[in-house]
Design goal:
Keywords: ATP-binding, Kinase, Lipid biosynthesis, Lipid metabolism, Nucleotide-binding, Phospholipid biosynthesis, Phospholipid metabolism, Transferase. By secondary structure, this protein is of the alpha+beta class. The protein has 2 domains: about 140 residues, 3-Layer(aba) Sandwich (Rossmann fold), CATH 3.40.50; about 140 residues, Tumour Suppressor Smad4, CATH 2.60.200. The protein is built from 9 helices and 15 strands. Strands 5, 6, 7, 8, 9, 10, 11, 12, 13, 14 and 15 form an 11-stranded antiparallel beta sheet that branches. It has a 4-stranded parallel beta sheet with strand order 2-1-3-4, with helices on both faces.
Length: about 325
């Protein structure tokens, strides 16, 4: 049986936990995470905040402590906060998945709702990195692409790891966040039905590596990973370390067509619909085009509200390191 390691022997980690994540699950696993990391010999710094912006700010400040890793506890929103803290810094991200959707953890093959398994990945990943001189991808850290978001011609405002969306799905996401019932995926379906009552196609101009798509549309999603919204495979062929984004955009659909296509997103078969198009690109500019439809909703990234259009999305290869299982594990 492995005994407790000497305090600080394994390194120094910051932990960011959102107490509201997963309806309180983040708070419930707090003791397990802190006790587990301490037992593994880490010096642990609590960088948690009372909300997502506060957690992100504290995480950024905590990087000045000389952390070996930043560990986020919660769902996709907490991963989003961690990405915005560590992007481009070289500090790897550890993920303890304890939220509601957990799409990012699942897409990366990480444990979900299993604190001991998540801590084992963090412990083994950092050990491999330390033993091999903070070695390259595959030695405890998987290097992933990340997406920088800005106003056209402006400085980077945000980063995201999974999916940015600004179509009917984003409008439904916003409505879902404002609802407290019913639980789980049924709340998303209820929000979708409510949005469909007044839905009219949005007007878009999307420029993808210089290629322009202008249309009345239903959906625009710029994906680095496959899933969002609790298991919807919006971009079934997306790979987070291939140097390319999957831009999924759909022409204007009627309400009836939307109801027909929506269930297919969970299987990823919506991409075979003739109104749905997928384009690979590294740089994507999304602009509203009022002449062709209504104003698109606020964009969401990694399930979190981001900003109104226009927005520029630029892929940065290998910008984020995520602690992963060691080779052969």
């Amino acid at each position: 049986m492995r005994g407790p390691a000497a305090p600080g022997a394994a390194g120094r980690v910051g932990v960011v936990l959102n107490p509201t994540s997963g309806k309180g699950r983040g708070l419930k696993v707090r003791e397990k995470v802190f006790d587990g990391l301490a037992a593994d010999g880490f010096t642990v710094h609590d960088l948690s905040g009372t909300d997502l912006p506060g957690a992100t700010a504290r995480a950024r400040t905590g990087l000045t402590l000389g952390l070996d890793a930043l560990v986020v506890v919660g769902g996709d929103g907490m991963v989003h906060a961690g990405v915005n803290a560590v992007a481009g810094t070289g500090v790897p991200l550890g993920i303890v998945s304890a939220g509601s959707g957990n799409d990012i953890a699942r897409d990366l093959g990480l444990p979900v709702h299993d604190v001991p398994a998540s801590l084992a990945v963090i412990r083994e990943g950092l050990a491999a990195r330390r033993n091999r001189g903070r070695g390259p991808d595959g030695e405890g850290v998987r290097m992933l692409d990340a997406v920088a978001v800005s106003r056209p011609g402006g400085a980077v405002d945000h980063w995201y790891l999974a999916v940015l969306s600004c179509g009917i799905d984003a409008a439904v996401n916003a409505r879902t966040n404002a609802m407290s019932w019913p639980p789980g995926g049924a709340r998303y379906v209820r929000a979708l039905l409510a949005e469909l009552r007044t839905f009219r196609p949005f007007g878009y101009r999307v420029t993808m590596d210089g290629e322009v798509w202008e249309s009345a549309g239903t959906l625009v999603a710029v994906a680095n990973t496959r899933c969002f919204g609790g298991g919807m495979r919006i971009a079934p062929d997306a790979v987070p370390d291939d140097g390319l984004l999957e831009v999924v955009h759909a022409e204007g659909l009627t309400r009836g067509q939307l109801m027909s296509v929506f269930p297919k997103v969970y299987r990823g078969t919506h991409v075979s619909h003739p109104a749905v198009h997928v384009r690979r690109a590294r740089s994507v500019l999304i602009e509203p085009l009022p002449a062709l439809g209504t104003m698109p909703p606020m964009a969401f990234a990694d399930g979190e509200p981001l900003a109104e259009l226009p927005l520029q999305c630029d892929l940065h290869p290998r910008a984020i390191g995520v602690l992963a299982r060691t080779l052969g594990a």
